[in-house]
Amino acid sequence: MKRQGDEMKEKKEEGAVQLHRTIGLLSAVSFIIGTVVGSGIFIAPKGVLMNSGSVGLSLLVWALCGLLSTFGALCYAELGTTFTKSGGHYTYLLETLGPLPAFLRLWTDVFFIYRPAVASYVSLAFGRYVVEPFFAPCAAPMVLIKIVSILGVTFVVAVNCWSVTVASRTQVTLTFVKMFALVLIIIPGVIALAKGKTENFQNGFEVDLLTLDRLPLAFYNGLYAYGGWFYLNFVTEEVINPNRNIPLAIICSMVTVTVFYVLVNVAYYTVMTPAELLLSDAVAVTFANRALQGLASVIPILVATSCLGALNGGFFGSPRMLFVGAREGHWPALFSMIHIRRHTPLPAVLLLYPLVVVMIATGEIYQLINFASFTRWFFIALATLGMLIHRHRFPLHPRPFKVPLAIAVIFTVVCFFIVGLSLYSDPWNTGRSCALTLTGIPVYFLTVHRFRLPRKWRQIFGDRQLQILLEVAQQEVQTY
Length: 480
Hints:
Blueprint: H1 4-15, H2 25-36, H3 40-52, H4 55-82, H5 89-96, H6 99-112, H7 114-131, H8 142-162, H9 164-194, H10 215-226, H11 242-271, H12 274-279, H13 283-291, H14 299-327, E1 337-339, H15 346-362, H16 365-393, H17 405-425, H18 427-438, H19 440-448, H20 455-461, H21 464-470, E2 472-474
Antiparallel strand pairs: 1-2
Helix pairs in contact: 2-9, 2-11, 2-14, 3-4, 3-10, 4-10, 4-11, 4-17, 5-6, 5-16, 6-7, 6-18, 7-8, 7-14, 7-15, 7-16, 8-14, 8-15, 9-11, 9-14, 10-17, 16-17, 16-18, 17-18
């Protein structure tokens, strides 16, 4: 039986300002699948085929991207059980390689590249699938697509500011909806394949159109569709029994997603020719018009819902990195504060909103993929390299889950190879990403390293009136 003092302590902690552990195994699996399965599987097939040059090679790229993502997810399972803080990439870089790489990850995520670009990509996909059916067979106005995309982002931000529980339940519900959408695509494809419709797979490995400089872009598009396997690590402090649930959730989720993704692409090529797929900006809609005439109007709704789920997962996880960074002193303290009643990291969520809106208004969807991917995979590679270094330096450090060394090495080497080759394949976008990342170095040494934040920053983000307006306060209970 619990002592009275323990019960009083638990009640006090429940009422304290903190992020509570509310994510169980089912929620964790739903969180990963719901974030991974978003716009990518419905838009990226065009990019994969365009840059791989053949049906067979594109399917191989999808399978290899799933395998590589699973390797990375297993590495992050070890990192997530070794370091019990939330924050994902930022925390692992901080703990293994030091504060400068961690700050650069935070800098690029918030201000320039990664998070706004990712959210913009998913939002534009959401807007496209909502608007395009009303204008078919004509092209939908891009202005209207962007307006609907911004409305989708606004809804997700509102949910994540309102309640962690509501955001989590929304994610579980949207995950089931999006898996239903994938099943609706797979079944007609399997039926057509069983009836002998295999002409699009004949001579599937023609390599005449393949060029080495474009192959990394095929992998970028495929890996982008698998992106999201690391988001559970952003909320480690909110996972129930993380030593058990993080590895289990990652393994179950990634195996499921890889199988579904390959089957969906097989279904696409069974019903559509490669030329038709390349001409479509909304592959699932074109597929539905061919194979699901009776349900063609439902598919865009399901796909839009899927995109919304991925967007919700991103906004649920990513602000925790900013929250932890502010808690470590790498960002203004306001962003380490939590709403006193709703227990959400309100300032961190709100900061991302205007950045995403600006990028939606100015970005182009395929450029956004290449623009964001360099930074994403560079810092993921650094995180897993840091894991290997930490293993070597601290061999006796407790590791509840330990990934095989070969998997960690293969994943790290492949990531660095793809990142390096991308500088040759798409020097403009990846070069911009690299340059903007490096702008964080002087910012770090002028502000964080010397603890000299500009006075205006201190006045704006340290203003107690702003804290009172947002109704936020510092975390009262240590959750790691």
